[in-house]
Amino acid sequence: AVLGPPEVSITSCPNCINVTIKLPPSHFRDRGKLLSLIDIYEELDYNITLKSLDGEYKKPRQKTTEEVFSTVIEELYPSRNYCVSVEFSASLNRHSIPSPWKCATADSEAPQGYHKVAVASAVCVSLIIGAVLKCVHTAGFFLQKKALPQTLV
User: Fold this and answer.
1) How far is the C-alpha of 144 from the C-alpha of 98, rounded, in Å?
2) Any bridge partners for residue 87, and if so which?
3) What whole-number distance in Å separates Cα of residue 104 and Cα of residue 17?
4) 3-class secondary structure, 116
5) Nearest to 88 by CA among 77, 96, 78
6) What integer best gives the mean pLDDT of the chain?
């Protein structure tokens, strides 16, 4: 039997991509129940191939005992497009079909909402400074409308 292809989805994170992997279904049944690949093999090996402008890079082989799991590929260049393909194998079965390539762009270090927060903070600080200046002006500490007494001039 050939393993795969797994179902793969990827999302961006700052200088990284998060890869979610769902094992392919098996076609074996036990007492009418469809067995998962984990039921059959207990543990599977998987390889992730990462492709970018720099070329292809195979990550070291990993093991899993879960049907659905995630892994994060870190230390990527921000704002660069990366594609991944995942391939499974078992100790007793090395025949597999890799997943189709899935692509995403790694985010830059600043989170998406960062610019909105910066603008909102600047507006709040400006309002606070304006309120303080208005209070100081009302108290008569600067921009006085009354003329100074002749002795102070």
Assistant:
1) 78
2) 47
3) 7
4) helix
5) 96
6) 83
- Whether the full predicted model's pTM is greater than 0.85, yes or no, is no
Please report where in the chains the tokens 């074996």 appear, as a residue. 28
Query: What average pLDDT score do residues 89-111 get?
Result: 86
Using CA atoms, how far residue 61 sits from 7, 54, 105, 137, in Å, is: 18, 21, 24, 70
Residue type (1 letter), 66? E
Kind and range of the H or E element at 84?
A: strand 81-89
Q: What is the CATH number of domain 7-106?
A: 2.60.40.10
- Judge whether 88 and 46 are in contact, CB under 8 Å: yes
95/100 Cα distance (integer angstroms): 16
pLDDT computed for residue 28 by the predictor: 84
Radius of gyration of the chain (CA): 30
Contact 89, 3 (CB under 8 A): yes
Q: At residue 55, what is the residue type? A: G
At 42-82, the pLDDT tens digits run 999 999 999 999 899 999 999 999 999 999 999 999 999 99
